[in-house]
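Morning!

As promised:
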Amino acid sequence: MPGELPPAGATWAERRRRALADPAMRAAVAKSTRNLAAKKEAAFAAYPAGEAMRTRAVIARRGSLARVDALLDELTRQIEARGGHVSRAAGPADVGRYVLDVARRRGVERVVKSKSMATEEIALNEQLEAAGLHVRETDLGEYIIQLAGERPAHILVPASHKTREQVRALFDEEAARCAVDPPTGDATPELTAFARRQLREDFLAADMGISGGNFLVAETGTLVLITNEGNGRMTTSLPRVHIAVVGIDKIVATWIDLADLLQQPALSGTGQRLSTYTTFITGPRREGELDGPEEFHLVLLDNGRHELLGTEFEDVLSCIRCGACLNVCPVFRTIGGQAYGSMYSGPIGVVLTPLLGGLDRAPELPKSACSLCYACGDACPMEIELPRHILALRRTEVERSMEPWTVRLTFELWGRFWANPAGFRFTGRMARLGQRAYLRDGRLQGAPGLVGGWTATRDAPPLARESFHEWWWRRRRASGAGT
Amino acid sequence: MTRHANAAPLQGTGGVDALVAEFVESWRGLEGDAWIARGGRDDVCHAIGEAVRTMVGDGGPETRRRVLAWATADLASLELPGLLAELGCEYVPWPSGSGGGAEVAGAEAAAPTAAGLLNLAAARDIGITTCSWAVAETGTIALYATPATGRLPSLLPTAHLALVRPSQVVKTVADGLRLLADHVARQDGPPSAVNLVSGPSRSADIEGDLAVGVHGPRRAGVIIGDW
Amino acid sequence: MARQLVRAFDDGATDGSPAERPPVIALSGSCAAMIKHEMPELLERDALQRGRTPATATRWRRRAEALADRVVELSEWLDSHAPPGPAGVEATRTEPGVSAPLKVASHTGCHMRRLLRVTEPPLRVLRRAGAEPTELVDAEQCCGFGGSFGLLEPDISAAMADAKLASLATARRDGVACLVSSDLGCLMQLGGRLDRRGDEFPMLHLAEAVDLADRHRLTPADIGRAARSQEADPDAR
């Protein structure tokens, strides 16, 4: 069954226009991506063991995907044996229903959330808020964009498009709204101290914590959370109910597989050897424990993932959400994450958004958000063949006639004429004549149809007076033939 | 739980001292504090005093440093209640679910309700724990959640101090996970929670600038020694 | 178009070592990458889609592979066939009286970098030609040409070109005389953007740089003339 993603919000043309017209955002994105890409490179260079683990981790991931259903069954058995609850959700509405059901039963009013792309994918916050629950994002970056009412701009660092002045303004507004002291300045420690104070209150008052999950270990029914801030631990330890919403693709078979995978998100995402807090959760609190949630629920999200198994796109489900592809993508660096109109941006977003949400959801991404430079394929630690998939999606769009008729016609005619020497020469002669209308100062500054896209922002050299072939044959005739 | 073919934890070349040195270097590289106590129990106690003073700070002679510490059998020989009282700290033991909780003169009674316990822990300046193992290569300590070893002392107080025995330091994360596998085999399952902690809480969400102490402890310290 | 290309170079031989047949030199890293990495699969898939038999499709694949084996990108070929250069690094190919090698900026296109994995040969060829090539800051970032992307998304493509030209501006402050690249698409992209801004900084294809060096004319003045020339005939430039 295909999945469902929240709508893009604005047209591609509008998102692109807004992005290109925002120099502050573009500078922030360029700085952040350059920095993270360099950190990843430095981390692997200094740590050969990390690379050895990475290559084994790729095999472990592919292996798990080949046995997803059996592993999910084992996972479920293990969790239920320890008093946890497991539910399968086909799509967004199923998750919402389950969470609200638990919330009603347990008298939940206030929810804290730690970062979860899966919950963004299904717009869970909106569903909960519509039912009257108070939902607070506690990851610092997610908190910032929640205050701003925006979508995340990067898979790992969702507020990396914001300057500190912008963050301070948001915090000042929130302080006024809550009638508390605003940050004392816009230095990082001061802004952080404000967030820490505010969010602590939310943590201590929360009835339910909702988290995502980085991995699920089938062998023991263990949820793995990889975070740096501590909000992941707080969300899953303090409230009396913990619900984890995790994509079915996150499953691994054994702890031996996990050992190779565990350090990969940190190494490729931020250049750390291990994230600050790596947490293994197996069921709710045990008998005699005084902290930890009383109830543990795991909601396994499908939302179009199962359909990808057994297809050429299966490796896309190996994604560990590290953001390495975003950090090397020149288009992402130019337009930032929100222009993609999806919580999954950058190269992985170009592929995952249409695969989960359907090509109609985001037809522009494969052809307009990618210059096919192949940097993402090189960067992906899970060796996902992103460029290949982007090409395949482009091909599918052509096959389904999703191109505008002008583009289709241009390529068809072009192919027809250039498929034989006579046609090639003919178009050359015609173009040499026709270009005169567009020449200025010896450069081409305009062109008809699709080629006009080029001259919109660049000049082009005019076609030479004679083609190489004409020059070649003229020379040969002049020198009396020979070779 | 499947066991790796080589089930014995590797100590690397150079033995325990090399591992401890690597662990301390990694931990300090993550903005953690580290004290090495070579002289046994007395040295460890001395280091605890130093650590509490350094990590909680000095607000003057009237400073009451509020401590929440595990009260396991492992820690008994350190006599923390007395030691911390001497240092001018308010000591509260982690109330063990099986009716533990040392009664010591001057100690606050631990609140039994969940909310009470949360608020107590959140108001503490420093949490003191031991750990199950530590990883040299990544600067990591592993904390298992059990009735006597709660999650909150390493999470909510402003600072966290962990006591590590040199023999607990292994080289790689995989080595540590093997120890966890041993535990799982003995206990027929993993603890409800295992936390691998690598330094104080951090984030780079604001302009990519490193922020320390976001939600978890602002300062994370280790004392390596035998007692 | 791909079928026509394969036909054009097909000498009828279907076995025998490609080394025995003359190499096909590609003047653009992108083109070489396309032929070597995409064409065999493309033609096989295309044949099946046009209703040909699997045997025919496999034949197309083999023909494309035979061509792919013969294709070599220019700088790679020059690098592996270079005559021993003049002794030492004295740049005898620059103006008399000037002994320092000419500083040039070098740009390697994405497909050459990532599909062909050819990054050192252009630098070596340029050094042998008496130049001192340096790569740009953020060298691995795409210039924005991208084929159809450059036509469909002129604004994003131009913004990417501008980022690359900003790196070039840094190199220009260090005194580079021109930008050299083995990729015609990249040259058109960056040159076209500079032209639109009225900036006449010279861009050269590697072949042009080597040609000038061979004639002992790798000088700023000659470079400028060559870059602006519309003449196909090298003698007329």
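The beta strands of chain C are 24-26, 71-73, 102-107, 131-135, 179-181, 203-205.

Hope this helps with the figure draft.
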